[in-house]
Amino acid sequence: MLSIIETRRRIEAGELAPAAAVEAAMAAAKARNGDLKAFASFASDSAAAPGAGPLAGVAVGVKDIIDTADLPTEMGCAAIFGGWRPRADAAIVDRVRELGGSIIGKTETTAFAYLDPAPTLNPHDAARTPGGSSAGSAAAVAAGLIPLAIGTQTAGSVIRPASFCGVAAIKPSFRLLPTVGAKTTAWTLDTLGLFAAAADDLAYALAAISGRDMAFGDDPAGLRFGVSTMPHAGERSPESEAALERAASALAAQGASVTQVTLPGALVEADRLQPTIYQYELHASLGWEWRTQRAAIPPGLAAALAAGEAVSTDDYDRARGAARRARNAAKDLFAEVDVLLTLSAPGPAPARATTGEARFNRLFTLLGTPCVNVPGLRASDGMPIGIQIVAPFARDSRALAAARLLELAIKAL
C-alpha cells in the first residue's frame, strides 16, 4: 500500500515531485479499474493537479455520495442520478483541495450507501465482497492505487470494508469531519471516515483535515485495553475469535494492560434499537427518491425504506432516548478502560452477493465514538481479519495511538 507519510517525506526531500506522485497514482488507478472497479469516474489531469500544503502530492479518492463540482455525484445509483453534477464541492472535498490534495476520482459506493452490493471487487479475492458501503474507497487503498480515500459510515461502512480489504481506517468522533455536501441517509449517524495504509497515515491526514492535533502525548503501552467479543451481536467466525485473542495476547506481550469487559446493558439495548433510528431517518432522508423514483431503487434499500415508513415517531423517540442513555453509560465504561478492543466484522469477507454485516460496528457509530480498523491478521485462507479499536468520544488521538501500538504488536508476532 502507498503511505501518505512516505510520499510526503520523499516530496519534502526533493526525491519526488508532487505532480509525479499524483500522475503515477492516476495511471495505476486507471490501469486497474477495469478489473477492480474501485472508481466510478476520474478527474481530468488539470483538475487533479496538486496544490500547495500538507497533502500536496497525495492522490485522494472520494466516495460517490460526496459532492464534487468537477465530477459527477451519482450516489451509486445511476438510474436516478446518472451524470448529476453538483455546483459546489462538499466541505470535505474543498478542505482537501485547500490542503493541496488531489482528488483523482470518485470511488464506487453501494446505492445511497446502503447494503445492495457495489460493482467493486475485493483486491484479495474477486469472489469475495470488499464490503460496503465505502467499497471503492477501501479497495483502492488496499490495492495500492492511492494513499488516501474518503468514505462514510452510518452503521459499519468504513470499518467493515477496511477489515475485509485489509487496510487501516478511522471513523472519527461524530462531526469531527464536516458532512456538509455528503448525501444524508441518517443525520444522527452519518460520519465521514478515512482509509490509509497505517495508523500513522490516518493520524497525519486526520490532523491536517480536521485542524486538530492527533499526537498522543503519553506512552501508548500504558493504555488499559478492555476486550469484548460483543456476544450480544451474534455469531462470529472461530478464526475471528482467534484473531481477537491473538491481538489481545500481542498487546499484553508489549506490556499493555488487557482485561475482559462486559458491555453495560444500556449499550446492548441501544444497539438493539439502532435499526429503528436508522430506518426512520433513512426513510425521511430519501423521501423524494422513495416517492418519485421507487422503481429505480435496488431491493435491499427498498425493503429498508418500506420498514422505515412503518416506524412511528414514538418508537423513534424511544430509540433516541436509549441512545442518550447508552452514551452516558459509555462514559462510565471508559472510566474503567481507556480503549475497547473488539472485532471489526463477524469474519473474513463473505461472497460478493452481500456486503457483510455491521453487527460489530453500528453501536459505536450510534455512540459517536472514534473507531479504527487495524489490519495485519489473516484467516487460514489468507483473507484479512481486522481488529477494531474504540476510544471515548473526542479521544481520536487515543484511538490512533492504540491502533499504532496494536500494529507494532501484530508485527512482533
From TrEMBL:
One of the record's GO molecular function terms: catalytic activity
Annotated InterPro entries: Amidase, Amidase_dom, AS_sf
The protein's name in its UniProt record: Amidase
Entry similarity comment: Belongs to the amidase family.
Parts forming coiled coils: none
Annotated ranges, domain Amidase: 40-399
